[in-house]
Amino acid sequence: MFLRIIPVGELRTNCYIVADEAAKLAMIIDPGSDADRILPVISRNNFKVLYIINTHGHYDHVGANGPVQKFTGAPIMMHERDLQIMDIMREWASVDSPAPDQKLTDGQVLEIGSLKFTVWHTPGHSSGGVSLVGEGVVFSGDTLFSGCVGRYDLPGSSKAELKQSLERLMTLPDETIVYPGHDVKTTIGAERRVRV
Questions:
Q1: Which residues face 49 on adjacent strands?
Q2: Under the phi-then-psi rule, with left for phi > 0, alpha for psi from -120 to 50, and beta for the rest, what region is 77?
Q3: Tens digits of per-residue pLDDT, 85-127?
Q4: What are phi and psi of 49, to 5 degrees?
Q5: Taking the mean position of all CA atoms in its chain, how far away is CA 169?
Q6: Angle formed at CA 131 by CA 195 and CA 71, multiple of 5 degrees
C-alpha cells in the first residue's frame, strides 16, 4: 500500500494519499488546503484518483476539494449528516469546495485496486464524521488522535456520540495503526491503554 501524508494548511491537517501502487489507483483523504502540494504526488506517480474522501465537513478538511477535483475528476464523498456543516464552511471560511457528489454510508466498502476500506460512521466531533477501516489501519479523521480525542464543543458535535464512536474504534485489533486528522500516527492498542 502506497501511503503519503501531507500536512496542509494553518492547522496542519493530515491529507492522505492512499494507493494500490501496482494498479496506479488512489484515493485522497481530507484535502484541506495546499492543492499545489497534493497534486504533484498524483502526477509524479501517475495515479488515477477514484475518490476524494472528506472525513467530515470542517473547513480544514475540505478546503482544497475544488482544485483537487478539477485536476483528478474524482467524486467528492462525505457523510450526509455533514452536508449542512460544509455549507456553513463555504460561507464562513470561503471554502472552495463543490457539494459532495456521493454520500458515504456506514458499512460502505471502498475499493482501490486490491485495497479495501470500510466506512465507519464515527460521529461526535461532527455529526457526519467517518473513519476508514482496512488493510491494518484506520483513518480516524478528528475522532481519535494520539493521546486525545476530537473536540465535542462545536456546533453539530456530541460528547455522547463521540464516546460511542471511540468505543467502536476500540474494538479494532491492538496493532491497528491509527492515522488521525492531525498530528502523528498511533495504534489502537496504545490508545486503549491511555483510556484504561
A1: 26
A2: beta
A3: 877 777 776 777 898 999 999 999 999 999 999 999 999 999 9
A4: -85, 125
A5: 15
A6: 140
